[in-house]
Amino acid sequence: MKYLVTDSRDIRYNLALETVLMEQADLSEPILYFYINSPCIILGRNQNAYDEVNLAYVKDHDIIVTRRTSGGGAVFDDLGNVSFSFITKDDGASNGNFAKFTTPVLAALHKMGATGAELVGRNDLQIDGKKFSGNAMRLEHGRMFSHGTLMYDVDLDVIGQALTVPKDK
């Protein structure tokens, strides 16, 4: 597996690089790509920003709002969040298999002492019923990525004001 960590903190650059890697990189080995973003909100490809985002708040606080090519819900990122993306060839059996891509993440977290971390539902990672990671996928032309977030020191007050978060999340 190849590893890539970007120094960019701009979500627009980081998502563009992920797209280029998925569409054009040599995938003879899977790529594990890590990035950290300045404050931003990333919408899934089918979300309505007017329903998900407090647009006045994000404008007043210079929070970038952008859209990713995968599905899933709205995500707030800041410097207390690490994003990861597994970029690989489509093997015909991995689309929708979030456990395949989150199992190594959970194993690393368990090794670091977060032994209560687990995959809950289809694509969320939680500890003690609290979500700290959402995951989404994109599949196209025999290639795919599965990406997610790892919240470790995110400003929860900002999330509550910037996003309209469903109670179950």
Structural commentary:
There is one protein chain. The protein is α+β, with helices and mostly antiparallel strands. It is 27% helix and 33% strand. It has five helices and ten strands, in the order E-H-E-E-H-H-E-E-E-H-E-E-E-E-H. The protein has helices at residues 11-24, 49-52, 55-60, 98-111, 156-162; strands spanning 2-5, 31-35, 40-43, 64-67, 75-77, 81-89, 118-120, 124-127, 130-140, 143-151. It is globular. The termini are far apart.
The overall pLDDT average reads 94
Q: Bin the helical content.
A: 25-40%
Query: Number of helix segments?
Result: 5
N-to-C CA distance: 32 Å
Structural class comes to: alpha+beta
Strand order of the largest sheet: 1-2-6-10-9-8-7
Number of β-strand runs: 10
Q: What form results from the Cα inertia axes?
A: globular
List low-pLDDT spans.
none
* Rg calc: 15 Å
Largest sheet: 7 strands, mixed
SSE series = EHEEHHEEEHEEEEH
Strand content: 25-35%
Oligomeric state of the chains present here: single chain
Topology diagram in text:
Blueprint lengths: L1 E4 L5 H14 L6 E5 L4 E4 L5 H4 L2 H6 L3 E4 L7 E3 L3 E9 L8 H14 L6 E3 L3 E4 L2 E11 L2 E9 L4 H7 L7
Parallel strand pairs: 1-2, 3-4
Antiparallel strand pairs: 2-6, 3-5, 6-10, 7-8, 8-9, 9-10
